[in-house]
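Box 3.1. Reading complex inputs
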Amino acid sequence: MGASSHPQHTTSHATPQSRGDQPAVGGDDEGAPLLTVADVRLSFAGVRALDGVSLTVGEHELFAVIGPNGAGKTSIFNVLSGVYRPQQGQVRFAGHDLIGREPYAIAALGMARTFQNIELFENLTVLDNLMLGRQRHVRYGWAQAMWWLGPARREELAHRRHVEDLIDFLEIEAYRKHPVGLLPYGIQKRVELGRALAMEPRLLLLDEPVAGMNAEETEDMARFILDVRDELGIPMILVEHDMRVVMDLADRVLCLDFGQPLVTGTPEEVQQHPAVLEAYLGGGATTPTAPTPTAPTSDAAEEGPR
Amino acid sequence: MKRGATISGRPELRTSYRADMALLNSRPKRLGAGVILAAALAAPFLITDALLAIAALACAAAIGAIGLNLVSGYAGQVSLGHAFFIGAGAFTAAALTGDPGESVYGLGLQWIVAVPAAGLVAAVLGFLVSPIASRFRGLYLAIATLGLVFLGEHILDNWRSLTGGAGAGRRGVIAEIGGVRLDQPTEVAGLVLTTSQQLYLLALVLLVVLAVLARNLARSAVGRAFEAIRDRDIAAEVMGVRLGRHKMIAFTLSSFYAGVSGAVYYTVINQINPESFNLLLSVQFIAMVLIGGIATISGSIMGAFFITFLPRITRELPAIVPFLTAEPTLRDGALLTVFQLEAILYGVLIVGFLILEPRGLYGLWVRVRNYWKGWPFTY
């Protein structure tokens, strides 16, 4: 087949299309964190969804955001990807200000995400869904597309090779030409991860990647997330309710409650923090009996079958 | 092994992405396309001129149906305004080819200049409408484009120097290429071609070229972006798809196809009445897309042929079905005229297909194909 080059090359072996945008994503502030969110405030009518949230994500970091339902976790993602526009605050990503940018422009800078409720294009095949992830690398226009021969075909072949690497990486070869809507849930989640990876992102936002999965699927997904970090070297922000996954994978954790940041720290620090325990377990839970690492898991599983 | 080579005995094994992504990537597809094309080219010498004229109209309609399918089927932007762009193309081509001496505009240009120009004028109109249209979704877009039809009807009815005015109309598009009038029989290499044969072949060539171009667009990143917008526009934008830009491309290209369609259609029919470009025409094109198959190019063509030949078929029915008359008025105890039956059939067919086979004629074909693929098994 000639397309089974190992996936760890996917970021380094630049296709002709991706070479062009290296300066753009290089950023002008060297040494600064990849992503800086400073004092973001977002409200809908009277509801404060985000109330002064700040965070930073480094070049190789796996950053997790946790919090009870309605804490504003997904709102952070929607601010980052440009779906929501916060009233206040700053978001800097790879040397660019994100506030006020359109979602496609943010995607073009290399921000990729998955969604809590799978947002795949069900009528399209796995292949087409992943090819859609290549959108920010497409250089040919509609006229060249209609003519097909020449630049369009050359580029499409290059994108196909890239996408096939990802199909190999995610072990979904058998589903390549299946319409996504017909696939099992766990595979759909994997395809969605693949679509985000096809963007060759600088930062990947994962919104509840293991929600609703059984133990086996969860373990598979956790392994893929680790592979993304270690093999592909892509930094991530992870929103997840499964505390075992969060505590095992994350380098640092931010806990939110009602839009307010409670604490940021290593998984161990966050786990022991009284404010976190109160948010999850309610007042009076801050009794001396320190919870075991798995204790919040069972209590925090307030949504989704597990 | 050489790239693209096949293992002997397994001609269907694809060993390169290039072979896999080819337009006709299997032997049955290549064979089928070849047979259909050969039959289409042989048709002028096999069927009567009357049927051939309808086939030429069907080719013209198919170009318009492909256009509507690009914007409504692929990009999901329901447009009721297709008749407006068809009309714009028809009158542009008529004015460009018309006789300069007549009471309506006429520049006496060549057909080969007028048809692309008709497409371009319609495309410019579509481009101008797209910034407004791309702000609407679903029903609201349908209503907004509906307004376009009424606006167009009013303008065409009253712009007498271009259209001849309501009730009068003007002469259709004159097909003159390099001094050869195609609306008169011509001798080519010892073979006399009738008007219908010439116009059919002309329309067929245009249809094949435009259909292949549209198919290429549909399988490219642009086509994928269209479908992404149709299915989930917010997710599409987060994936890097520029909504406004792609809706603009869809509207503009769709209008171009509509303009060419109008120009070719009224090359075959030699009288244009401004009242023709009404809501019913738009609905007919929607019927072609729905009955043919949403988001398929071949379906658009099938749907256009089906709808265009429908009146010809219903006209035969009074001979078989009682209480049906071919007269325009009800007489001699008839309950239904063929014209009423046609109107009813559009509705019944649209509803029937939506319920029973939403993938349209294309879907029926897929069923037949899958049955024979699996034969003698049913799975």
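In summary: Residues 225 and 240 of chain B are 9 Å apart (CA to CA).
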